[in-house]
């Protein structure tokens, strides 16, 4: 019982440490999404890109959209079911970054039905850095050959399109209005699961219970 008490105390303390880590992460992300946008990370910085330090950074990127290479990724949003439109943005240094330009309903998936939104010429977009989502969604794997995408898997999408010099992240475009109204940007959902306090309290209660059990056993032995 004593060993259980020590183990439960250790697990409770670990959850408290995780709680403070999560609160710090949430605070850092809040600061990122409200910060003045900076240029998107260039190729020398790509190897160091990671979720903890870079996701949800507010950035800008300038270049030309290759609409003929856009990818539709299934999405469910507050606007209903439909697709994210991921479009390669070729930058002046020759590199490319995938931009999630936003959401379109299923009945407007054909770019011919939203021609005003197919921006030509140089564009500047503002948005949030997002980390690649490899593999697919829960119980549904991406099918590159069939053109069915359930997650924004940067490496797989760019390989399928034959793109080179592509950033390992993508950018969620902000809500800047687009001619014709589609795609609809600015729908990034930022949500963190934070149950560490509940877990910590649970482990500490178990520690108290096991300590009480150990005390009762010891008293019975001495009686």
From TrEMBL:
Coiled-coil segments: none
Membrane-spanning residues: 197-217
Keywords linked to the UniProt accession: Cell membrane, Membrane, Transmembrane, Transmembrane helix
Location relative to the cell: Cell membrane; Membrane
Major localization class: membrane
A Gene Ontology term for the protein's cellular component: plasma membrane
PROSITE patterns for the chain: SURF1 (PS50895)
Entries under InterPro entries matching the protein: Surf1/Shy1 (IPR002994), Surf1/Surf4 (IPR045214)
CDD domains: SURF1
Membrane topology, from the record: Multi-pass membrane protein
Family indicated by similarity: Belongs to the SURF1 family.
PANTHER family cross-referenced by the UniProt entry: SURFEIT LOCUS PROTEIN (PTHR23427), SURFEIT LOCUS PROTEIN 1 (PTHR23427:SF2)
The protein, known as: SURF1-like protein
UniProt source species: Neorhizobium galegae bv. officinalis
């Amino acid at each position: 019982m004593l060993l259980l008490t020590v183990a439960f105390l250790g697990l409770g303390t670990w959850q408290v440490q995780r709680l403070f880590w999560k609160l710090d992460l949430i605070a850092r992300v809040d600061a990122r999404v409200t910060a003045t946008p900076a240029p998107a990370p260039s190729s020398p910085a790509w190897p160091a890109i990671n979720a903890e330090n870079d996701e949800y950074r507010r950035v800008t990127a300038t270049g030309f959209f290759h609409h003929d290479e856009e990818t539709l990724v299934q999405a469910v949003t507050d606007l209903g079911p439909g697709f994210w439109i991921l479009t390669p943005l070729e930058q002046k240094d020759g590199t490319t970054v995938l931009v999630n330009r936003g959401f379109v309903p299923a009945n407007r998936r054909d770019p011919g039905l939203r021609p005003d939104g197919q921006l030509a010429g140089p564009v500047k977009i503002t948005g949030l850095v997002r980390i690649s989502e490899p593999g697919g969604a829960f119980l549904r794997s991406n099918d590159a050959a069939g053109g069915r995408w359930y997650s924004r898997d940067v490496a797989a999408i760019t390989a399928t399109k034959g793109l080179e010099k592509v950033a390992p992240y993508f950018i969620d475009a902000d809500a800047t209005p687009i001619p014709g109204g589609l795609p609809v940007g600015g729908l990034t959902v930022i949500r963190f699961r934070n149950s560490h306090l509940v877990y910590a309290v649970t482990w500490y209660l178990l520690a108290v219970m096991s300590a009480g059990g150990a005390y009762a056993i010891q008293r019975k032995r001495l009686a």
